[in-house]
Amino acid sequence: MKKVFIxxxxxxCGKGTQTDRLSKELNIPHVDTGSLLRENIKNETEFGKxxxxxxxxxxxxxxxxxxxxxxxRISREDCREGYILDGFxxxxxxxEALKTMWExxxxxxxxxxxxxxxxxxxxxxxxxxxxxxxxxPKCGKIYNLISSAPKNEGKCDICGVDLVQRKDDTKETAxxxxxxxxxxxxxxxxxxxxxxxxVQINANQGIDEVYTELKKVIx
Length: 219
What we know:
There is one protein chain. It contains nine helices and seven strands, in the order βαβαααβαβαββααβα. The chain is an alpha/beta fold. It has a five-stranded parallel sheet, with helices on both faces. It starts with a strand and ends with a helix.
């Protein structure tokens, strides 16, 4: 049975880490909106050129472009048996668009098993996670100075290069991001609950504990 997972949760909830782990175990792609846009921009695809023109102006990429990029990705052969969505959908409109993609998919995804997983975690915990988050500019590995610090202070365990902090990983920006998330994305919980697809896990645990709970709710 084909399986489609939709990971929902605010910035810093840890869903990216769990997505990578589940993707490797199930051997299905991790479909991440941000990475896809960067890939298209790097390869100078039609969608990439459009996306870059907006990003260069400091504007948001139009939702139509994002949806087209997602649709192209989930239509590739490696998604035939399923995939994990991370960062999409972000609104009811996008969730409806995704249903249309399933209906038109060459892999008959309207018949697949689908699960929307919500990573539940208190806002104050998320703020602490974000302001202590660091990443490797070379390999992309993410660290947290409190819960998953690098072995050598300020250095990536894999590459040995200096870790960096995202410019928007500040307390003020984090709070604003959560407000935006709550206003725009939280309605998706009711949407997927009404669809009978929603499950919820406690993301305020260690990485291994979260993964154990994740495996239980999707099995």
